[in-house]
What does this fold into?
Amino acid sequence: MLKTIPVSDLEVGMYVDSIAEQNGNLKIKSRGRVTTNAAITAMKKQGIVSIVIDLSKQLIKEEEPSPEVEPPPEQDIPFVDEISKAAKLHEKGKVLQRRMLQAADKGLPIDIAIPKEFTSNLVSSIDRNPNALLCMTKIREKDSYLLEHSLNVAILLANFANYLEMPEDEVQELALSGFLHDIGKIKVPDEILHKPGRLTDQEMVIMRDHVYYGIRVLEDMGIPERMIETISQHHERLDGYGYPDGARGDEITKFGRMIAIVDTYDAITADRCYKAGMPSQKALKILHEETALKYDQHLVEQFIKCIGVYPVGSLVKLSSEKIAVVIKQNENNPLKPLVKVFYSVRSAHYLQPVEIDLLHSQYRVEKAVLASEFKLDFNRYFNESIAI
Ligand SMILES: [Fe+2]
It folds into this structure.
């Protein structure tokens, strides 16, 4: 007996007869029983909306071929297995970003295939275990803001798009848009780019031009029109007070709204040469309350859920008087993430890192903290003891 159901109702053990409706490219080559959750996730990512299932076959116990879905090659890899790959990828991203900025500065051509292949590798790492690269977004080096910011926006945007269950081609497109969005900043003088205080009107004019410079470079690279539009909108705001065009409301696309949220979040949580980054909770509050008219509030709410109360890579103080780094959200209880304990406040000593699932622990998070509050060189410790 055949029945059409939305893909969200599909379960392991059901027998897929055919696709009823889909937006993306057809990748199911044969009918069969669904044997893994990864196959269901892959169907959703490929834009399948509804499917026809055969109820008479879903309870058959003998082995039958699974639908030939092409799931991502690897998924749900443990954090510990992905983190060293993610650390190398993060480092490679900074090197590539520097080379692209230098090329843009000299007016040399940039082959789009190179950043595209890199961001495709980023998305693959996120598919294997998003927490590894998310953790890397919190490892900041002094004076590397320009390199790290675009890389982090790529990671956060791809992760956000995955959270919104956007199709694979859009996840890839947003990752590449994030990676390239600030390339025009190479034309802004350092004294304006890194000025601690408020920019003068004249300096602001120069700063705003980084969007136009960027677009010019991207057009020379042959970047698709929709990506140019997304990147050109990363400083536009819904109330019309953004730049460079003062676009407002519906003039700003969903991708433009997403990149604006992620760009702002990363910029205000980043450590800069002249100030420490703001805690994530404060940054999210600014996006949600203090500047609510500027950002798409529905998307901001989704982003807050995606990032979590205690974002991956952030530091927390536990009731055991120990400091830990968050390495995974707990979907059912955002207040009790999986953490790695690495420092004792009482004895002021680093500890051998130990993983604790706070859902099953007597200890709880007391508060989010910054490494600077405890004079911790967390970056060095992370590189030597966690991302080995
Ligand atoms: Fe920018």
Notes: Residues 59-65 have pLDDT under 50 and may be disordered.
